């Protein structure tokens, strides 16, 4: 079970599911949907949050939030 | 001027919605309040090609009708409130380069069955990204007119206006998803109970009834009962809905939008990000920009501020010369006009600060600052987004506290509001410079550091450190109402839209003057009365005393005037107040004269210099800091004969000004933003305690 927070910079994954219902609502509204490709673009200078490329735009989220996204 | 058609603008953040609003309405806009909430309501008028006049409402940018912040919650209320606000037509702005995510909000709004027009913005960006959109086919599938525009380049606006004027009175859009299947019985029940025939409207009522102001309490609790009866789970229903909507959108886009597999060329935005959010350089660049901002705020505003001051002095003397002498003239000149000048003199600083912040936001850099700072800020109970108000606090806490509305999380927002007034604002600057010049020698330490400059820098650093410590303490006191999260779009870098920057600057300055102006005028009138009148016939006796011939012989006429003025002040109501609080402030090293300055400063800190000028009877106006300084420097304690302003007293006084909430405008704006008197009261109290303690410790140590 690989989480988005474990993905390294520059690597791509495909969203499978979420572990947190409340968080998933916000994430899905922002375009993070099951089946969608997601790429970690960069990490903030202090190691958190991270910036990902998803549905054609750049999204930033905290590592803790990224850990609720399970990848295929 | 009555509008014949009401049009609401709806769209995701960063889609160019406000640019379009500005294009449609020009300078013909005003900011009001939505009933019951403090969210700014931006409206403007636009003439349509058919001769009708449209009222345009700019609704806050949102990703969905399910609100995540105070600003966003207004969108559904306006669209749904059939009694007051409901628009006749909605213009949904979609970002063509990011159609999929943008269409989510579109389908939600479309399902409310309000007549719709789609403005497809950023076609140029989409083209650059290799995205081609079959607009005709998409328009047919959706059942609504789609107008391609470029808000930045002012293209397609006339076509959009045409489309608005020819839009149907009835909603013709196709259904997107089967709303009823999400909660069939509940939707029916609510529809029946509240006479709602639109199923999506009924479903939204089920989700949002607790926060909707147009529902009566009875209606809301009835919905609650129905939800329990039908086993409604709001979050699950939302998840089902969102997934269904994206399925619909995917089908929709399947044969209308094609994206060329772009050669993996790195985007310009990405390359800029590599530098601006770089591990090490990122922070250096950020602090460099901050330094530049402060330089600009102080340097660029010096000249216009001087002009404003001169204008008001000119007005003051004009009023004195033109109107017959008397209490009313004095009230107008020394109370109202003097009070007004105290507010208006800050306009240049506020305008420059907001222009610079607007540029940083417009270019997309501010989102990167919150991205970089989030971890640091979270440690002390704040949020990456708190950085903006805290930086703004160096200029003025009032607009900064207004800018906390973008912080979705309630606890983070409250802590930011509570600590922002601790940051050394520009009103403290005249107080600090005066006191430092008085007691700190003007010489260099280790050749390069000027002692006075070091002392001033120290006060600024202290302000930030104290704000951070207080925030950290509050993190443990306040209970979180909801989970905090930081899911935020990082928009692509763009050139700032200068029009937008100018409009923001103008808007904010206006809001500041109207908000702060009222309070400051009121308080300065009260203070003027307190300082100009005394109990009984005190004043007459003073006048009589100085009419005696011996004073005319030993003193020059101006000196007599000054002596009268300062004796009158001592026996005025303000003087009595000063004497009354003297026992309380003696441990801090302050006498009754400083006491008066402390009291008057509660209207606004910068009043300190003016009060000192009056008390130590200086010619002319409050801005002659040099002469105020000299008078204060030569002031002696009546009992000991030593100088009143020692190092200990001056620093104790600076500590007091650093911590005390001496700003009526901030109190007012905190109330306006929190809608609860307890917040400004608690803030006032904790800051007063800090101020007293810090002053006491400073005075005791340095004495």
From TrEMBL, chain A:
Residues 2-72 form the Ferrous iron transporter FeoA-like domain. Keywords: Iron. GO terms for molecular function: transition metal ion binding. Pfam families: FeoA. InterPro entries: Fe-transptr_FeoA-like, FeoA, FeoA_core_dom, Transcriptional_repressor_C. This is Iron transporter FeoA. The lineage of its organism: Bacteria, Pseudomonadati, Bacteroidota, Sphingobacteriia, Sphingobacteriales. The gene is feoA.
From TrEMBL, chain B:
Pfam families: FeoB_C, FeoB_N, Gate. It comes from the Bacteria. Keywords: Cell inner membrane, Cell membrane, GTP-binding, Ion transport, Iron, Iron transport, Magnesium, Membrane, Metal-binding, Nucleotide-binding, Transmembrane, Transmembrane helix, Transport. GO terms for molecular function: ferrous iron transmembrane transporter activity; GTP binding; metal ion binding. Mg(2+) 2 binds at residues 25-26. Residues 4-170 form the FeoB-type G domain. It is a multi-pass membrane protein. The chain crosses the membrane at residues 280-303, 336-360, 380-402, 414-441, 453-474, 512-531, 645-671, 683-702. The keyword Cell inner membrane applies. Mg(2+) 1 binds at residue 22. Probable transporter of a GTP-driven Fe(2+) uptake system. Belongs to the TRAFAC class TrmE-Era-EngA-EngB-Septin-like GTPase superfamily. FeoB GTPase (TC 9.A.8) family. This is Ferrous iron transport protein B. The lineage of its organism: Bacteria, Pseudomonadati, Bacteroidota, Sphingobacteriia, Sphingobacteriales. The gene is feoB.
């Amino acid at each position: 079970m690989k989480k988005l927070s474990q993905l390294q910079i520059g690597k791509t994954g495909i969203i499978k599911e979420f572990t947190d219902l409340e968080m998933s609502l916000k994430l899905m509204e922002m375009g993070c949907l099951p089946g969608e490709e997601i790429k970690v673009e960069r990490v903030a200078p202090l190691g958190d949050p991270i910036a990902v490329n998803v549905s054609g735009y750049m999204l930033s989220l905290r590592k803790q939030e990224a850990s609720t996204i399970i990848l295929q | 001027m009555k509008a014949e058609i009401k049009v609401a603008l709806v769209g995701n953040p960063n889609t160019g919605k406000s640019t379009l609003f500005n294009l449609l309405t020009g300078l013909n806009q005003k900011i009001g309040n939505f009933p019951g909430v403090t969210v700014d309501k931006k409206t403007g008028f636009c003439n349509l090609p058919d001769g009708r006049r449209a009222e345009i409402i700019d609704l806050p940018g949102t990703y969905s009708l399910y609100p995540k912040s105070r600003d966003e919650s207004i969108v559904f209320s306006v669209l749904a409130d059939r009694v007051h606000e409901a628009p006749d037509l909605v213009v949904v702005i979609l970002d063509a380069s990011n159609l999929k995510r943008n269409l989510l909000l579109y389908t939600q709004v479309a399902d409310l069955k309000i007549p719709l027009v789609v403005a497809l913005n950023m076609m140029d960006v989409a083209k650059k990204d290799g995205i081609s959109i079959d607009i005709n086919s998409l328009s047919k599938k959706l059942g609504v007119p789609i107008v391609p525009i470029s808000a930045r380049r002012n293209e397609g606006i006339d076509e959009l206006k045409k489309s608005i004027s020819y839009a149907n009175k009835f909603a013709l859009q196709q259904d997107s998803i089967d709303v009823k299947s999400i909660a069939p019985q509940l939707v029916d029940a609510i529809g029946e109970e509240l006479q709602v025939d639109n199923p999506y409207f009924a479903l939204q009522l089920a989700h949002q009834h607790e926060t909707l102001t147009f529902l009566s309490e009875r209606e809301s609790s009835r919905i609650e009962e129905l939800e329990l009866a039908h086993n409604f789970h709001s979050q699950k229903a939302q998840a089902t809905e969102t997934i269904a909507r994206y399925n619909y959108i995917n089908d929709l886009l399947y044969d209308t939008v094609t994206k060329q597999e772009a050669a993996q060329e790195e985007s310009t935005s990405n390359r800029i990000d590599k530098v601006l959010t770089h591990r090490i350089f990122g922070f250096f660049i950020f602090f460099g920009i901050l330094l530049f901002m402060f330089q600009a705020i102080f340097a660029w505003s010096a000249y216009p501020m001087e002009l404003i001051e001169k204008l008001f002095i000119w007005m003051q003397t004009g009023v004195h010369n033109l109107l017959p002498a008397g209490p009313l003239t004095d009230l107008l000149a020394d109370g109202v006009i003097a009070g007004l000048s105290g507010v208006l003199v800050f306009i240049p600083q506020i305008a420059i600060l907001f222009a610079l912040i607007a540029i940083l936001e417009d270019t997309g850099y501010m989102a990167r600052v919150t991205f970089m700072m989030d971890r640091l800020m979270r440690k002390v109970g704040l949020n990456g987004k708190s950085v903006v108000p805290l930086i703004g606090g160096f200029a003025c806490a009032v607009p900064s506290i207004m800018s906390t509305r973008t912080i979705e999380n309630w606890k983070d927002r409250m802590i930011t509001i509570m600590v922002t007034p601790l940051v050394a604002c520009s009103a403290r600057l005249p107080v600090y410079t005066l006191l430092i010049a008085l007691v700190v020698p003007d010489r260099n330490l280790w050749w390069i550091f000027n002692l006075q400059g070091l002392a001033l820098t120290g006060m600024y650093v202290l302000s930030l450190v104290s704000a951070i410590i207080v925030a950290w303490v509050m993190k443990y006191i306040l209970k979180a109402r909801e989970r905090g999260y930081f899911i935020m779009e990082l928009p692509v870098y763009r050139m700032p839209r200068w029009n937008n920057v100018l409009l923001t600057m103008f808007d904010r300055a206006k809001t500041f003057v109207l908000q702060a102006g009222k309070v400051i005028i009121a308080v300065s009138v009260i203070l003027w009365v307190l300082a100009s009148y005394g109990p009984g016939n005190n004043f007459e006796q003073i006048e009589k005393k100085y009419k005696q011939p011996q004073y005319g012989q030993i003193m020059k006429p101006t000196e007599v005037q000054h002596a009268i003025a300062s004796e009158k002040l001592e026996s005025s109501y303000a003087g009595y107040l000063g004497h009354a609080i003297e026992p309380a402030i003696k441990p801090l090293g302050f006498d009754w004269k400083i006491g008066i300055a402390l009291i008057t400063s509660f209207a606004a800190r910068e009043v300190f210099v003016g009060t000192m000028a009056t008390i130590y009877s200086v010619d002319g106006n409050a801005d002659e800091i040099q002469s105020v300084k000299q008078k204060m420097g030569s002031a002696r304690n009546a009992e000991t004969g030593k100088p009143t302003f020692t190092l200990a007293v001056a620093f104790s006084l600076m500590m007091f000004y650093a911590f005390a909430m001496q700003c009526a405008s901030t109190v007012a704006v905190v109330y306006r933003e929190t809608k609860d008197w307890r917040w400004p009261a608690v803030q006032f109290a904790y800051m007063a305690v800090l101020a007293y303690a810090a002053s006491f410790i400073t005075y005791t140590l340095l004495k």
